[in-house]
């Protein structure tokens, strides 16, 4: 499928559309809650008492916008390659494979992204990587939507890579792939905005990732908590966590007697 457009046109559409969505739409929601309704934070904020200091808020905004545009340039270039030169394994005609394969490819694409997101994120919490790269994303202990992409640029590129990669290794319809990419963007927003948004089936509450920013080395999953349950990295009730507690979900139990025989509080339900 060729749209007959030059690379600069892909870049222009990507940058205008991407920024309209990120700075425009995201900014309006942010303004409504964080500026207009700041005094009512008890009603809408996940961490109602806490706001980022002005300097940190600004830093997250500029770093977030810089990284977001970096990814947009890479993605727009890839889109040019996909549409104009057939680089990927995406196909454009549903009839090429049946509906059963369409559903399977959707599942495989999601699983690829979720597994990569979890293991890369959990890897970022190993002390060596944390102290060099991932700590930047954790400067924002009460996240706002700018913090979706506020991290070390190398880490951000690694995250963008596993979102782009399925298009090049899993044959799937363009619509399937675009739906998964759109879902990752929406959930990234949902989880970082710091606003009490409705619970989403399978995904759970957006407090899950907000708690990741608050308690550091817990809750690494992205679209769900599947891998956190497998690896016991979900936050547990009664356990203590801080930036130096590199223990995954187990954290530190300060009063084992308060938690009974096993001194292991139950994993929180989000
Ligand atoms: Zn983290
Ligand atoms: Zn985050």
UniProtKB/TrEMBL annotation:
> What GO molecular function terms would the record report?
delta7-sterol 5(6)-desaturase activity; iron ion binding
Predominant subcellular localization, coarse grouping = membrane
Q: Which GO terms describe its cellular component?
A: membrane
**This enzyme's EC code(s):** 1.14.19.20
Fatty acid hydroxylase domain sequence ranges: 107-233
In its keyword annotation, does this UniProt entry include Transmembrane? yes
In terms of InterPro entries, this protein maps to: Fatty_acid_hydroxylase (IPR006694), Sterol_Desaturase_Related (IPR050307)
- Domain of life the protein comes from: Bacteria
**Subcellular localization:** Membrane
GO biological process entries? lipid biosynthetic process
Record's Pfam families?
Answer: FA_hydroxylase (PF04116)
Q: Which UniProt keywords apply?
A: Membrane, Oxidoreductase, Transmembrane, Transmembrane helix
- The residues that cross the membrane are 12-35, 60-83, 103-122, 143-162, 168-190
What PANTHER family does the database record attribute to this sequence?
STEROL DESATURASE (PTHR11863)
Name the record gives this protein:
Lathosterol oxidase
Species source reads Zhongshania antarctica
């Amino acid at each position: 499928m060729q749209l007959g457009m030059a690379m600069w046109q892909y870049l222009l559409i990507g940058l205008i559309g991407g920024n309209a969505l990120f700075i425009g739409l995201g900014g309006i929601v942010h303004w409504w809650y964080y500026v207009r309704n700041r005094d009512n934070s008890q009603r809408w904020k996940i961490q109602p008492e806490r706001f980022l200091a002005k300097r940190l808020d600004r830093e997250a905004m500029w770093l977030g916008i810089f990284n977001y545009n970096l990814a947009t340039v890479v993605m727009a270039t890839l889109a040019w390659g996909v549409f104009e030169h057939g680089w990927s394994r995406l196909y454009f005609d549903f009839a090429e494979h049946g509906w059963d394969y369409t559903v399977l490819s959707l599942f495989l694409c999601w699983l690829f992204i979720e597994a990569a997101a979890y293991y890369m994120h959990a890897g970022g919490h190993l002390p060596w990587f944390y102290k060099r790269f991932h700590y930047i994303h954790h400067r924002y202990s009460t996240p706002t939507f700018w913090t979706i992409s506020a991290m070390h640029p190398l880490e951000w590129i690694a995250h963008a890579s596993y979102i782009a990669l399925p298009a090049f290794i899993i044959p799937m319809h363009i619509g399937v792939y675009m739906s998964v990419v759109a879902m990752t963007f929406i959930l990234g927003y949902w989880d970082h905005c710091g606003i009490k948004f409705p619970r989403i089936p399978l995904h759970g509450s957006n407090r899950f990732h907000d708690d990741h920013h608050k308690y550091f080395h817990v809750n690494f999953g992205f679209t769900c908590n599947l891998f956190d349950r497998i690896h016991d990295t979900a936050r547990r009730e009664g356990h203590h966590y801080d930036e130096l507690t590199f223990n995954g979900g187990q954290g530190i139990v300060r009063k084992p007697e308060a938690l009974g025989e096993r001194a292991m509080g139950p994993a929180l339900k989000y």
